[in-house]
């Protein structure tokens, strides 16, 4: 796993701030691109270190996640520093 982590860090060094935020979020949570795009700041509870995934955006259309298993509460303690 350290090799993967160092590779991600290496790739992100020259990336835009958007990629420096989205790539670690995707890599550490396993969220789909559509779920990441559906996040709002209100979905993130920095005090508890959690994130509610309740909507997704596909082709510009905002919808609830398709299945209950897609709707989740992620533990994101390390990500609070990134976000």
- How many beta-strand runs? 5
Quaternary organization: single chain
What fraction, in percent, of the residue positions are helical?
Answer: 25-40%
Radius of gyration: 13 Å
Helix count equals 4
Strand content: 15-25%
- Tell me the span between the first and last alpha carbons: 23 Å
How many distinct domains?
1
For the largest sheet, list the strands in their spatial order: 1-2-5
Q: Major sheet: size, sense and barrel closure?
A: 3 strands, antiparallel
> Which residues form runs of ≥5 with pLDDT under 50?
none
Structural class designation: alpha+beta
Mean pLDDT across the residues is: 76
Shape: globular
At a glance:
The protein is an alpha+beta fold and 83 residues long. The chain has helices at residues 2-12, 17-29, 33-37, 79-82, and strands spanning 44-45, 50-53, 55-58, 61-64, 72-75.
List the helices and strands and how they pair.
Elements: H1 2-12, H2 17-29, H3 33-37, E1 44-45, E2 50-53, E3 55-58, E4 61-64, E5 72-75, H4 79-82
Antiparallel strand pairs: 1-2, 2-5, 3-4
